[in-house]
Amino acid sequence: MNVAASPARPAVATPLDHPAARVLIGRHRLRWWETLPWLAAVGLYFAFPAYLGFGTELLVAILFALALDLALGYAGIITLGHAAFFGTGAYTVGLLAFWGIWTEPISSLVLAGVAAGVVGLLSGLVLLRTRGLTLLMLTICTMALLEQAANMAHDYTGGFDGLPSLPIAPVFGVFEFSPLYDNTQYVYALIVLLICFLLVRTLVYSPFGQSLTGIRENLLRMHAVGSPVRRRLVICYTISAALAGIAGGLWAQTNAYVNLSTFDLDRAATVLIVLILGGYGRLYGAFVGAVAYLALEHFLARIYPTAWQLGLGLLLVLIALFARNGILGLGEALWRRYGGKRAAS
Amino acid sequence: MSKRLVVAIAALAITASGAMAQEVKVGVVLPYTGIGAELAQQIDRGMEIYLKLHANEIKPYTFKFIKRDSKAPNGAEAKVAVQELLTQDKVDALAGFVYSPDAIASAPLIAAGKKLAVIMNAGTAFITNLAPEFVRTSFTMWQSGYTMGVAAAKDLHAKTAVVAYTDYPPGKDSLEAFKTAFEANGGKVIDTIPAGGPGAVPDFTPFFQRAKDEHPDVLYIFVPAGDHATAAAKTYAALGMRAAGIKLIGPGDITQDIKLQGMGAAAVGLITMHHYNADLNNPENKRFVAAWKKAYGADSTPDFMAVGGYDGMAAIAHAVKATKGKMDGAEAVKSLEGWKFNSPQGPIMIDPQTRDIVMNEYLDEVVLGPDKKLHQKVIGQTDHVKDECKELGIGRCAAKK
Lengths: 345, 401
Prior knowledge:
- The structure holds 2 protein chains of 2 kinds.
- Chain A is mostly helical.
- Chain A has helices at residues 19-26, 36-47, 52-74, 83-98, 105-127, 132-152, 154-157, 183-205, 207-217, 219-224, 229-255, 265-278, 285-303, 308-322, 326-344.
- In chain A, helix 4 packs antiparallel against helix 5.
- Chain B folds into 2 domains: 2-139 and 281-355, Response regulator (Rossmann fold, 3-Layer(aba) Sandwich), CATH 3.40.50; 142-274 and 360-397, Response regulator (Rossmann fold).
- In chain B, 40% of the residues lie in helices and 22% in strands.
- In chain B, the strands form 2 sheets. In chain B, strands 6, 7, 8, 9, 10, 11, 12, 13 and 14 form a 9-stranded mixed beta sheet that branches.
- In chain B, helix 2 (37-53) packs across helix 11 and helix 11 crosses helix 12 (329-336).
- The N and C termini of chain B lie far apart (52 Å).
- The chains are: A mainly alpha, B alpha/beta.
- Chains A and B meet through helix 3 and helix 13 of A and strand 2, helix 3 and helix 4 of B.
């Protein structure tokens, strides 16, 4: 990123020299620990090739949580209906592939993002006039309406049973998706996630992102300083929807399958739990939450197929009791208390 | 006497399996948690009872089950489980699949993994077309629905019918199967009423009132077993539809044995079509139910899911013996094409063309027994019922990929 180079400019008295400006610009700089999740993801590819199917699922979940983080964590849009966009993206890819219209993966993914973005824009224009619980209810309604529409268009969407065995063309015409081993799917999902992440990162550290945080923290003041609040919220919601759509499209491509569960309240609730568990409004909360929740669920369920929910429930109770700001929030608090003090003295 | 025999056989099996024993790994994918947990338990137990009752025949092979939870019926969880079972655990066969989406999502993997996969419940008709390794020992919605359509016209002498169904694939399949057969045999379906979804039990009164006002000879319903079916039977009684001359009929899903007692007196007189009920009077079933009650308590009962598991296990055991334990996918499937077995539900066969089960369907009436419990009395029987969806080539059943 170019912005990372800006502190190296000669120190002349420009507005950029202002301490506040320096803080804002400095936030774009990549810190060393930010490479860790990506190194871990690459490490997983080589160390545990047999787990790449689960790994791919994990990457899709991270992308979906990241999309939600933009709307919920940064702009404070209380939504429990983000699966509406996940499903729109998944069905865009699914319908195009199943009916033999378009199977090229990358352009399908872009189309999935556009379709979900349009749904986000249209619903956002109406929904974002409300706040709080009303907004929450309306987001669930939008999702339920789309789910029901997909159910009623049974002849095209396959209803509850979904669209089976989607033909997905090889990436760049070379890298084929094997059904049994997910190597290609994993690398493909990882690259998509990286691109989307860089986009979100740039966005939230930009003045636009800063204004979103302002809207979340103090709506009245943002109105008072003349910030175009509704427009910013709608833009943010649309981008978030498009990213959720890409996550959905990715899910459909890597599973070669799409069904009504992509519009499910269950999915919308799980991604919310993942985000809250990791810590919302923190960029990396999506990563930590998805890994903690899904990996625990996956491995507990392998060992105790009938009783794994007990372990997961226990974790959520502990998090709710002792770490209100999620795992990252807990880590930050501990760092401030112990590590940070030592560093300061 | 028989109890002692079972114990003796089991003991014999343990002592005899020594050096000769060859382990066969079976990956079992079932919804062990959530609303499907009860169904998973039925199938698990059905498989166990088969192994108990046939310990002698399966020697020298032993079975190791690797159980995986398919969780919510969205397909994705089952798919990851199937993938890991095939690539990490290197299983010799797969079994289970309660929900159709789980089998549908796993189909490409199963086709690529080339291992026998036995479907023990999932009833969407076209699934077996998706992978040549699928063999189904349960049923399709068409088998009960179509046969009931014929029986309603011929045995119950109905001229008109109204169909009320829960609005999801099994309901729609059942509706289409019933309608196709009923109208081919001179009946007329005068109205079809979507009656809510599978998630929550709706108030059936408006749907049934509409049916009552149309004065059909029979009201055919498909609703999920359990709370839905109980509510439907009670609404039928409350609206006085029997007195109005309307018979309540449906596929046997609505009188699932484990839910039957909970339906209460309102269920008496309900007429259903199914391939199994726990009261079936044949020696195999008597042995099966007795072993079940001994193992899991006198109050527990097997149902059609358990028989799907029992027959599925029998199919796997047959394939193991036929391939001498090698369990090569293509060979295992080949050994099951045309395979015949004497099941608790009566004689069954795997159709060599479709790899779907061919079985008897029984017309059952719910009666109150002398023990003050509800029972199902067989009042009619149709032999060797195939999946008509594939026979007639309807919709996706025709499309062989």
